[in-house]
Amino acid sequence: MPSPDQEINPGPFSYGRHLLKALLPSKTWNNRVVELARKAKNLGKDDPRKVVHSLKVALALTLVSLFYYFKPLYNGFGVNAIWAVLTVVFVLEFSVGATLGKGLNRMLATLLAAALGIGAHNLAVLFGKTGEPILLSFFVFVVGASVTFLRFLPEMKVKYDFGLMVFILTFCLISILSYREELLIMALQRLLTIVVGSCAAIFVSIFIFPVWIGEDLHNLVAVNLEKLGTFLEGFGAEYFSEPQEGVSIQEKPFLRRYKSVLTSQESEENMASLATWEPRHGRFRFRHPWKQYRKVGDLTRECAYKIEALNSYLNSKNQTSFEIRSRIQEPCTMISLATGKALKDLASAMQEMVQSSSVDSHISNSKIAAENLKALIKSGLWEGVELVETIPATAVVSLLLDLVVCAEKIAEVVHQLASLAHFKSNMTAERSQSIGRSTIQPTSNIDPRENHVINIVE
């Protein structure tokens, strides 16, 4: 037998076994594949529009690839036909607004950059073979520096950042390549293929199961308001009830749904910017006031931050005694209920795009309850109670009073939105609903007694 110090030759069979083991998928790799498939399945179930979007991208790529498959088209554009495929990849986004924004940016930027590149080439030619590359390099430097600086401006970055980037790329390509290649034909072919690719992407995005980013923004802002209203409606019962052992806030989802509102600013601003590119569709008119949704979203988040602070006092460790809390129970519960109803009515009115008539009454009730609470505090409510014990309850009172003011501001901004967007009044909405019901049930206006007589006769 070989000693432990001697090296054992594994032989060819052992090497083959190790190689086969390395090639076969390991258990960890199989688990990762299964986990990835499960996530993909859940993603498709949660939002089937993403599956449809994937098919739309594949369809658009297949259409523009015909420039290569059909010889007459390929002879007309040559290798530049690949720019149609690249344009679809860059331009076709999930929503119509994003696709239109990128498509129009790309076409306009390519046109302007091509014209400027041709002009720069014609000007540089006048300086001869020695001066031409020097002047072209100078133009590339000036355009690259100035347009890149423009990308830092907030007004340009929001809507035209992609177009500015394409402008730099196209100008540099045309001005540099013009030194060695035929310029006019190349620029024209590239421009036409980019226009074809952008139009194909826009056509597929609009006419095949379109996803309107403006509608998503509208629903998001309304749902955020509804989440805050749900919390406030349930806050009074939770705060003024006796703490129950073994029951945590995690078991009550309605007390945690508002947290998503705190992180929605970036998505709302991006959606509002993209929605401005969309044409009139569905219930949304041309030049719909998308900027107004930003104001509603900002006030909603301001209200959500106050609710976040209010939520911390639901923890029994931060609460005052039940006896002290019971002294302010009635007005505080009234404030939270009325404010919650106001926010939920605003959310419902936004969803249905009608002007709510009950919001003002809820706001009025919350303001009356707030005045009653202030009067109760001034009447010496905390006499005989140590100051330290009243601090949490005082903080809750202060936050509830701030929420009344915040809800009133939200109502004002939503009313402005309803006016600018021409929301229907309640009377108009109810009339249209009644017409719909009468169309479905033509005998609804018949007196019940007459209907009973008709049934007897039959």
UniProtKB/TrEMBL annotation:
Q: Which GO terms describe its biological process?
A: malate transport; monoatomic ion transmembrane transport
Subcellular localization is given as: Membrane
Do the record's keywords include Ion transport? yes
Kindly state one GO CC term assigned in the UniProt record: membrane
**Alphabetized InterPro entries for the sequence:** ALMT
Question: What keywords tag this UniProt record?
Answer: Ion channel, Ion transport, Membrane, Transmembrane, Transmembrane helix, Transport
Transmembrane annotation, as ranges: 51-70, 82-101, 108-128, 134-153, 160-179, 191-213
- One Pfam family this sequence matches: ALMT
Q: Which gene encodes it?
A: LOC110412394
> Organism's domain of life?
Eukaryota
Q: How does it sit in the membrane?
A: Multi-pass membrane protein
Its protein name is Aluminum-activated malate transporter 2-like
Q: Which family does it belong to?
A: Belongs to the aromatic acid exporter (TC 2.A.85) family.
